[in-house]
Amino acid sequence: MARKKIALIGAGNIGGTLAHIAAQKELGDIVLFDVVDGVPQGKALDLSQCGPVEGFDAKITGTNDYADIAGADVIIVTAGVPRKPGMSRDDLLGINLKVMKAVGEGIKAHAPDAFVICITNPLDAMVWALREFSGLPHEKVVGMAGVLDSARFSTFLAQEFGVSIRDVNTFVLGGHGDTMVPVVQYSTVNGIPVPDLVKMGLSTQEKIDAIVTRTRGGGGEIVGLLKTGSAFYAPAASGIAMAEAYLNDQKRILPVAAYVSGEYGVDGLYVGVPAVIGAGGVEKIVEIELDEEAKGNLQVSVDAVKELLVACKGIDESLA
Ligand SMILES: NC(=O)c1ccc[n+]([C@@H]2O[C@H](COP(=O)([O-])OP(=O)(O)OC[C@H]3O[C@@H](n4cnc5c(N)ncnc54)[C@H](O)[C@@H]3O)[C@@H](O)[C@H]2O)c1
Ligand SMILES: O=C(O)C[C@H](O)C(=O)O
């Protein structure tokens, strides 16, 4: 069987890390695309030379030509600009919207059968715009944010309870902004709900509330520490988990930015929800029963995403 082909649009911090993990896992041959001449080619050469040391068989090439993504099975988009300290993700909307237009047109022309995972911020608006510009089916275009936000939530909970990260399961829903919704109700340690662990005296409500707040600001915390650029190791690992779910038809239930049409009372936009990811792309959105607080918080988050879509339509009238 021929190897799968993975195209990475954007060869910056996340793009390079995605290429490295994908090669280590031998997910397929990799094409790194970027607008900057030399960067994707240089990174591809450097990464190829990891092969003999790490023992992977993957052809890694760099390009500035969209024609080279033809036939890609999976495309992961990180093209664009990251925020700097003091900025919100939403401040990137104008500049990254233009990038999504170029990328969407490139995908439409050269790889319309791919499963596309968007990572560029502000995520929920950019994945929506990328889908519009590419014209691909909604179930084949998805955004990565919830896997990362849930990983942060899980990390902080594992530290709080002093347990293995393997036993912690969490969902963060809603938009990938400060209004995201870490769902405590469905967060568990080996099946035991976090609220029960609090009742058992293993933590306090105040500490869990602080972890929820830290999770919401998790991206900003790293931006503040790095001072230039934003998180890239965990975002890349999260993108790869989604790519693997599709390539290996794993039917994983992951929190992803999926196109909702009626689920959770929301229609016609992308927002973070639990969804089954398999060979069909986003195969099903899973509607979990939320408590009143989570429901209210999700609505606030959805409203924030709606505002961003209005802004996109104001900037690019082809989206209106
Ligand atoms: N969704 C998430 O959870 C999440 C997590 C982390 C970062 N991000 C976002 O991902 C994006 C990328 O982050 P990064 O750290 O890799 O940034 P980076 O600056 O290291 O890399 C971005 C790359 O995109 C390239 N680029 C710019 N315009 C392009 C175009 N038109 N076509 C192709 N490539 C283009 C740049 O040359 C650069 O190499 C940012 O918008 C960031 O905010 C999202
Ligand atoms: O916070 C950012 O700007 C990058 C990304 O969205 C993250 O959550 O790490």
Instruction: Give the SSE order as H and E letters.
Output: EHEHHEEHEHEHEEEEEHHHHEEEH
Second CATH tier, the architecture of the largest domain: Alpha-Beta Complex
Model regions low in confidence, pLDDT < 50 over at least 5 residues: none
Could you tell me the radius of gyration in angstroms? 19 Å
> Briefly, what CATH class of the largest domain?
Alpha Beta
Sheet having the most strands: 6 strands, parallel
Brief overview:
By secondary structure, the protein is an alpha/beta fold. It has helices spanning 13-24, 39-48, 51-54, 93-110, 123-134, 146-161, 194-199, 205-216, 218-226, 233-247, 292-315, and strands spanning 5-9, 29-33, 60-63, 74-77, 115-118, 141-143, 168-169, 172-173, 181-182, 188-189, 192-193, 252-261, 267-278, 281-285.
Write up this protein:
The chain is α/β, with parallel strands linked by helices and 320 residues long. It folds into 2 domains: 5-144, NAD(P)-binding Rossmann-like Domain (Rossmann fold, 3-Layer(aba) Sandwich); 146-313, Lactate dehydrogenase/glycoside hydrolase, family 4, C-terminal (L-2-Hydroxyisocaproate Dehydrogenase, Chain A, domain 2). Helices cover 43% and strands 19% of the residues. It contains 11 helices and 14 strands. The strands form 4 sheets. A 6-stranded parallel beta sheet has the order 3-2-1-4-5-6. The protein has a 3-stranded antiparallel beta sheet with strand order 7-10-11. α5 (123-134) crosses α11 and α6 packs antiparallel against α8 (205-216). The protein is globular and about 55 Å long. The protein starts with a strand and ends in a 5-residue tail after the last helix. 48% of the residues are buried. The model has no long low-confidence stretch (mean pLDDT 97). The structure holds nicotinamide-adenine-dinucleotide and (2S)-2-hydroxybutanedioic acid.
